[in-house]
Task: structure prediction
Amino acid sequence: QARQLMPADILARKGGAPIVCLTAYTTPMAAMMDAHVDLVLVGDSVGMVLHGLPSTVGVTMDMMILHGQAVARGLKQALMVIDMPFGSYEESPEQAFRNAARLMRETGAGAVKLEGGQHMAETIAFLVKRGIPVMAHVGLTPQSVNTLGGYKVQGRGADGERLMADAKAVAAAGAFSVVLEKVPQGLADRVTAEVAIPTVGIGASAGCDGQVLVVDDMLGLFTAFKPKFVKRFGTLGEQAEAAIAAYAAEVRARTFPAPEHVFADEVKK
Ligand code: KIV
Ligand code: NA
Result:
């Protein structure tokens, strides 16, 4: 398409062709994926995959803005969604609006994403009524790792009803889509069938309305650990390390730089 996608375009894809989403944190990666995906998420996963933080809890507004600005420069077609970092929206709808507006104003993102179900519904409605499209995120919500007690599968057994209620609450509040992270396949399919907005799965089900992965995970660039739901579509980390080792060996052997990389003392006439 010629113009950049908008949240309403994503919403209209409910039940249609799968919505393709990836994270990005830099201009070149965003530019590389722009023609291939529908939605680019500037995820707070940036803290773990690019900054070496132990969880997403340490990610700040300033980090999100800097990476958001970089991603925006690489996109022409895909919708850009930016994560609200931990501590920037939970306190009140007003706090959420102030920070969501700053993220959109300073990065040019078309929407924000925030974590939480029923307890965030009031905030989602507050933002949407005031011009800020919201992507919701339920199931495993990594910013709550300290209260969840780890990165466990969410919504198994009786907890499935709570997860269904969370997804229905964010849809009723006006979210244009909802990420389902690390939930059982059957539950993800039921949520997809019963909720009116597109579900975007990560560790959920191929039956979701779309899928998302962390780009460094799927490229094999982030290798500190690999969640079960990650498929490595490439091995860029291994290739990068081999290239670095080859460079180091050539520098030590004085075979790099070679004649074609150096400059003559006199310019030939
Ligand atoms: O931060 C992130 O990358 C995310 C996706 C995994 C959904 O929230
Ligand atoms: Na995130």
In short: The CA atoms of residues 34 and 78 lie 6 Å apart. The pocket of 3-methyl-2-oxobutanoic acid (ligand 1) is lined by residues 23, 41, 43-45, 83, 137, 179, 202, 212, 214 (CB under 6 Å). The domain at 7-234 is CATH 3.20.20.60 (TIM Barrel). The two ends are 51 Å apart (CA to CA).
